[in-house]
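FAQ

Q: What does a record look like?
A: Structure on top, sequence underneath. For example:
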């Protein structure tokens, strides 16, 4: 598996150090949670902070838009080294159009769905995306416990991918710990987003190594 530490769980007042820790640990991406206070209750940061972060990291950025108007952010995030750009299917009225816009701006589109949203909501766009971000907690709040039924949901998505010969990454965000890494790998997860589990780890390189070994 690959690792995408969520910078939101670090010390944003010292982002340079946070990004250094992410890179030195051998992480694959840096995960940014953009919340607008409308789609989710919390408000985090926007494009200016991500632009500043680019000065301090060479890693590809993995940006998760928890916003009511994801298309608004697409042109602004172009050319900032964003590899994966995630949008919520619950916020996209015209998902195929949005996916095309993301690709036009040189980023890989990732469709995201909340724990209570059925997989049928994204079936029509699975051939068009580079990844699926499965929320394993309710979006907008850090430090939550993994919602157990999501395991079965991930397994169903893995089976669907194989049955239809599709090629997309499965990424999981929320409640990822050392204790569930093996299970996530076994059911087909390709990328894990780790916030508290990564930044609270005494040995961050060791945590990254455990992810990569699976």
């Amino acid at each position: 598996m690959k690792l995408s530490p969520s910078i939101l769980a670090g010390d944003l007042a010292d982002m340079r150090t946070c990004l250094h820790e992410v890179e030195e640990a051998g992480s694959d991406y840096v995960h940014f949670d953009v919340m607008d206070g409308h789609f989710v209750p919390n408000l985090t940061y926007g494009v200016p902070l991500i632009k500043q972060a680019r000065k301090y990291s060479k890693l590809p950025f993995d940006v998760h838009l928890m916003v009511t108007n994801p298309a608004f952010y697409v042109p602004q995030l172009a050319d900032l080294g964003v590899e994966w750009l995630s949008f919520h299917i619950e916020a996209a009225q015209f998902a195929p159009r949005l996916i095309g816009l993301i690709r036009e701006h040189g980023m890989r589109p990732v469709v995201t769905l909340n724990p209570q949203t059925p997989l049928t909501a994204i079936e029509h766009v699975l051939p068009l995306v580079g990844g699926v971000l499965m929320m394993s907690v309710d979006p907008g709040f850090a430090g939550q416990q993994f919602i157990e039924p999501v395991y079965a949901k991930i397994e169903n998505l893995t089976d669907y991918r194989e049955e239809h010969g599709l090629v997309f990454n499965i990424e999981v965000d929320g409640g990822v710990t050392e204790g569930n890494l093996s299970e996530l790998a076994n059911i087909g997860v390709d990328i894990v987003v780790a916030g508290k589990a990564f930044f609270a780890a005494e040995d961050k390189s060791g945590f990254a190594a455990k992810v990569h070994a699976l």
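Q: Is there anything notable about this one?
A: DSSP finds eight helices and eight strands in the chain.
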